């Protein structure tokens, strides 16, 4: 039986009774454990102005985690490119790749990763978002082969050929990835609705690329929420923290990750039918249960989607529960 590669997406979550410093320390600890458990990639996502997320300065955190690990690939899942000049991203990730040769990944998205007011504070360029494909190509040019005659050069950066993934939750990213011959990762852990159609579009329109970092065949990844524990009852209880986080997204009341409730049923019963429907739709790609249950459900998911890799996020309130969840799944998967 073919197993997809397992990766971790870490939001560097801040629990309601913890601090950003503790969240960052937990991220380093989880990455070190994940390396020993055989996970292939450890990615962090750019988000801004969120009380429960400490990954706003994503490139800095990638360097911090890479400094304290030795073999696992560390990267961005992702950098929201229209928030930044491609040249600056090239310098940042070129520097990271120079320090940590062969271990840095750069996932690129075009969503803001925040609210409209914060987007303006970031000086987000909406025109750049409309020209996402062009921005990606500009960035690839800075990271490509050194050109001494170029008027603008990324140093460090040129010649590093940092591997680039295109991220998306709709068809737009799939089109860009296919046209440029780049790998594609779908954010089905929070926006699963277009997963299958986006993967089909990407595969059907894929253009092989001979450029450094380009592919000769499609390569795909999909996101999933997981919660693994020794019993199904305990996993479902721990998953209530994930439910309340998504409820906060739906209702606009975001905060730190909350302690688990007694049961999923008690949490759902406290919401309106519309809120229940919205949250349950967002978390359709979630696998909760014992190691065997989650392994089998995840295998069914990878078989159905045909993805080469999955990137997993576990939103348990307690750090030890997150560690245990990833450890149990790694053991079951292998």
Produce the secondary structure layout.
Blueprint: E1 5-10, H1 20-37, E2 41-44, H2 58-67, E3 73-80, H3 86-99, E4 104-109, H4 116-121, H5 126-130, H6 132-143, E5 164-168, H7 171-180, E6 184-186, H8 195-205, E7 220-228, H9 232-251, H10 264-269, H11 273-282, E8 286-289, H12 291-305, E9 309-313, H13 319-333
Helix pairs in contact: 1-13, 3-6, 7-8, 9-11, 12-13
Protein architecture, described:
This is Luciferase-like domain-containing protein. Pfam families: Bac_luciferase (PF00296). Residues 9-304 form the Luciferase-like domain. The chain has 13 helices and nine strands. Helix 1 packs parallel to helix 13 and helix 12 (291-305) crosses helix 13 (319-333). By secondary structure, the protein is an alpha/beta fold. The model has no long low-confidence stretch (mean pLDDT 94). It has a single domain, classed as Luciferase-like domain (TIM Barrel, Alpha-Beta Barrel), CATH 3.20.20. It has an eight-stranded parallel barrel, surrounded by nine helices.
Any key phrases for this structure?
alpha/beta; 334 residues; 13 helices; TIM Barrel
Structural class: alpha/beta
Number of helices: 13
In CATH terms, the superfamily is Luciferase-like domain
User: Looking at the structure, what is the overall shape?
Assistant: globular
Mean pLDDT: 94
List the strand order in the largest sheet. 1-2-3-4-5-6-7-9
Percentage of residues in helical conformation: 40-55%
CATH topology: TIM Barrel
The CATH architecture name reads Alpha-Beta Barrel
> How big a fraction of the residues is strand?
5-15%
Radius of gyration: 19 Å
Q: What quaternary form is this?
A: single chain
Write the element-wise H/E pattern from the N-terminal end onward: EHEHEHEHHHEHEHEHHHEHEH
- Give start-end ranges of low-pLDDT stretches: none
N/C terminus separation? 11 Å
In total, how many domains does the architecture comprise? 1
- The counted number of beta strands is 9
**CATH C-level category:** Alpha Beta
Organism: Intrasporangium chromatireducens Q5-1
Protein name: Luciferase-like domain-containing protein
Family: To bacterial alkanal monooxygenase alpha and beta chains.
Pfam families: Bac_luciferase
């Amino acid at each position: 039986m073919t197993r997809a590669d397992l990766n971790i997406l870490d939001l560097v979550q801040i629990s309601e009774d913890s601090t950003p410093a503790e969240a960052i320390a937990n991220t380093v600890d989880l990455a070190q454990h994940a390396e020993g458990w055989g996970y292939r990639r450890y990615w962090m996502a750019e988000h801004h102005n969120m009380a429960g997320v400490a990954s706003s300065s994503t490139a800095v955190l990638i360097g911090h985690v890479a400094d304290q690990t030795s073999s696992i690939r560390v990267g961005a899942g992702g950098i929201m490119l229209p928030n930044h000049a491609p040249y600056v991203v090239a310098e940042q990730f070129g520097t990271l790749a120079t320090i940590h040769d062969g271990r840095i990944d750069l996932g690129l998205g075009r969503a803001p990763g925040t609210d409209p007011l914060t987007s303006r504070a970031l000086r987000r360029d909406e025109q750049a978002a409309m020209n996402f494909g062009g921005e990606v190509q500009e960035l690839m040019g800075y990271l490509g082969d050194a050109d001494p005659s170029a008027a603008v050069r990324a140093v460090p950066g040129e010649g590093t050929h940092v591997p680039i993934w295109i991220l998306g939750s709709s068809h737009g990213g799939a089109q860009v990835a296919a046209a440029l011959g780049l790998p594609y990762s779908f954010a089905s852990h929070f926006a699963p609705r277009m997963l299958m159609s986006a993967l089909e579009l990407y595969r059907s329109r894929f253009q092989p690329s001979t450029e450094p970092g380009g592919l000769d065949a499609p390569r795909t990844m999909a996101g999933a929420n997981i919660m693994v524990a020794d019993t199904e009852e305990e996993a479902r209880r721990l998953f209530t923290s994930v439910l309340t986080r998504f409820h906060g997204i739906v209702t606009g009341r975001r905060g730190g990750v909350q302690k688990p409730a007694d049961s999923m049923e008690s949490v759902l019963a406290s919401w309106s039918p519309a809120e229940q429907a919205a949250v349950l739709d967002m978390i359709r790609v979630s696998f909760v249960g014992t190691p065997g249950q989650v392994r089998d459900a995840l295998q069914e998911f990878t078989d159905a989607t045909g993805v080469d890799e999955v990137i997993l996020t576990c939103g348990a309130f307690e750090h030890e529960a997150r560690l245990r969840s990833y450890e149990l799944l790694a053991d079951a998967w292998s």
